[in-house]
């Protein structure tokens, strides 16, 4: 029975905390039941981008005539595309190899479950005797997995999730047809990938629109482009029955408004209806770690659980690697700095959906602002309205003419930014910086005690968090940055 200063469960963002602990001379253990590197590297955002980029290129080639280039239908080398993807995934082997060479670190490649607040059992698939390990501190960074809703016949028919797709379910060639259950970010990304490579795609979504967390205009815009590219979208629809025969698979869905049932024939069924916590695999009740009704670990703003020596990042608040990286940085400061504890900040969480058109989001939607009763103004700017967009071939009348939607408060503070179109992920990032600058300034003002301190801070950052710095800056011309910089002229 080994005892460690710190045990980290999960090898995604948890590796950042592990590295910080090892650099301080602590004895550590890492417990990982799957490939090293976490979801992002092995079955998520990184390998998917190896498929998204060529899919983007295919779609751009199809519309290149708009700026005078006749590209013709692209020829896809699926094996070459796949090799690039597997090259990224296989980096997990290098991570594992390097971890096993580090002094003061023991690597446990198995499934960990708590036996008590300070001890964990690690079981192995090969039948080896389990190990029992003790830790003074634990960091739970075990991530999440695909949520699979009960659908009659699904198990016998067979199906894919993102985990299976980036594993033994990866196809030797693109499918002829596929049904994707779910209409969120994962669904939209894979719908783009599959359809660009020639697969007939049908999306089945329970709510009344896909991308329900986005602005309605964004959701509608993406839906229109999907349908233009041959993607069939069935909203207000629930999957009832899956089956398989010698001709392939089928999924029967029911329209929740009309009761009408439709059976869709397909080569494959892909489940992309959200994720669930991996906390249920850890026997958290044995450690006295509190979870919520959905199985996510309850944490405070310092990422402490109900056990003060156990920290966690699988709290159900956003499922992005950059969110996990932020939490890892907070944990590093709180565990090792010895200074005042740092709070995690979820007030400004950006994201991008790498579909076509690309979607980027930071801050509140207009519906959320109205619900809170906040006074605001809004404006839109379309790609066709700036030279950078027109150079890309966009015109006012184009149905794929993307846009930025800006939402600001009465004091010019940025409440939300929503973009649909090329390079949306790049265009939204400056606003993330501005909004976070406002967060920092506000925190400093809260801590100021005397009137002199408060006045001094206001003199130093009167415009922090507003769009004033953008208005005062030179914006490169002609570039897509004009799209977001000039939207304020329409307020």
Offer a concise description of the structure:
33% of the residues lie in helices and 23% in strands.
CATH top level assignment of the largest domain: Alpha Beta
Average pLDDT, all residues? 92
Q: Note the beta-strand portion.
A: 15-25%
- Rg over alpha carbons: 25 Å
| Biggest sheet layout | 7 strands, mixed
Question: What is the number of helical segments per DSSP (H or I, 4+ residues)?
Answer: 17
**Which range best describes the helical content: under 10%, 10-25%, 25-40%, 40-55%, 55-70% or over 70%?**
25-40%
Outline type: globular
Task: Draw up the topology in text.
Elements: E1 2-9, H1 14-23, E2 28-31, H2 38-43, H3 45-62, H4 78-89, H5 91-99, E3 105-108, E4 111-116, E5 119-123, E6 131-140, E7 144-146, H6 154-157, H7 162-165, E8 177-181, H8 185-196, E9 200-204, H9 216-228, E10 232-234, E11 237-245, E12 248-255, E13 261-266, E14 268-271, E15 275-277, H10 284-287, E16 310-312, H11 321-336, E17 351-353, E18 359-363, H12 366-372, E19 376-382, H13 387-391, E20 403-409, E21 414-420, H14 424-447, H15 451-460, H16 468-471, H17 481-485
Parallel strand pairs: 1-2, 1-6, 2-3, 6-16, 8-9, 8-14, 9-10
Antiparallel strand pairs: 4-5, 5-6, 7-15, 11-12, 12-13, 17-18, 18-21, 19-20, 20-21
Helix pairs in contact: 1-11, 3-4, 3-8
